[in-house]
Every structure is written in C-alpha cells, then in structure tokens.
Design goal:
Blueprint (H helix, E strand, L loop, with lengths): L1 H25 L8 H39 L7 H33 L3 H20 L1 H17 L4 H15 L12
Helix pairs in contact: 1-2, 1-3, 2-3, 3-6, 4-5
C-alpha cells in the first residue's frame, strides 16, 4: 500500500509541476528557472526528468521489496532498516510537497495568462523581456535564473515546512501497517 501511495504522490507532483511547466513553456507565458531546463534545453529537460523519476520509482519499489523480505526472514539489521525507509519517506514527501507548491504557482500563472487581456499583455511583455535578455547575455541569464530557483525552491525551507515534511513522511511511513510490515493482510 505504501509503495503504491508513494508512486501516486510522486506522479501527482510530476503532474502538477512538470506538466504545468511544459504547458506554460509551450504558451510562452513565462521563463523557466529550473537548472536542468537551463542547462539542457527543452528535450534534455524532459529526458533527464523522466530518467530521474523512473530511477526514484525504481529505488522506491526495490527498497520496499527488500524491506518486506528482511522483515519476513528476520535478517540481520532488519529493525534498523526502518530508519532508511523513514528517511526515504521524508525525502519523497519533500519532493512531492515542493512539486505541488511549484505546480500551484504554475497554475496561478496560467490563470493570470488566461484572464483579462491586460494580464496577458503584461505576462507576454515579461516573457519577451526575458527572452531578449537571454539572447543578449545567456550566461548571466542562466546564472540569475539559477539563483532565483535556489532562493525560491531550495533555500526557502522554514521550520514549518520541515516539520510538515517530517510529519507527512512519518504518516507515509506508517501507511498500511498493523503490527509489522510483512503483515499486510
């Protein structure tokens, strides 16, 4: 159950963030600040993102299979494996919550773009200015967009967000358990 829920949450985050980002980029409604997009372009961003998400899902499934096998056979260190699974759940919740937050920001940008003509003109003007800046000084543009991404996504973690990551990670860790992980009937 936990494996399926984790994959579902990750796919929900991908849908909200990456798909809405691609919609925005296809409509030229805004500039992308994701470092993968800035380094590898549109198709490289899609390919690398698919590889990263496939790898995360693969590791998630393999780790849980190993976890259930260790618990059912009472192998050495099977109780300390809980720590690894818990940390993986916290990492997954960090990824999902961040992607959902970015997805809602993208949805807000799309609603502004599909709103009145004044807001569309303003967004198109901003996109045009960003594209001209990118053509004039590509290195500086990539650096500034990378710095913007770091400030808004990576370094914008407060105590409340950290507690939410840990609490939701713990709730994901406890999904589907009655007494022990191998007792899922």
């Amino acid at each position: 159950m936990k494996t399926i829920l984790g994959i579902y949450l990750l796919l929900l985050g991908i849908l909200l963030d990456d798909v809405t980002s691609l919609i925005i980029l296809s409509r030229d409604a805004g500039a992308e600040s994701n470092p993968l997009f800035l380094m590898f372009g549109f198709w490289g961003y899609i390919a690398i993102s698919l590889l990263i998400y496939a790898f995360i899902i693969f590791v998630w499934v393999v780790t849980h299979r190993k976890y259930h096998k260790m618990y059912s056979l009472k192998q050495k260190g099977y109780k300390t494996y809980d720590i690894l699974i818990f940390l993986f759940c916290v990492f997954l919740m960090f990824l999902v919550i961040t992607k959902v937050e970015m997805g809602f920001n993208n949805i807000g940008l799309m609603t502004n773009y599909m709103g009145s003509q004044d807001s569309r003109d303003k967004l198109e003007g901003n996109a045009t200015i960003a594209m001209e800046f990118q053509k004039a000084e590509p290195e500086r543009y990539d650096k500034e967009m990378g710095d913007y991404y770091k400030q808004t996504v990576l370094y914008n973690i407060g105590y409340l967000k950290m507690w939410l990551y840990i609490i939701f990670g713990y709730l994901l860790f406890r999904v589907g358990y009655r007494v022990s992980p191998y007792d899922e009937s």
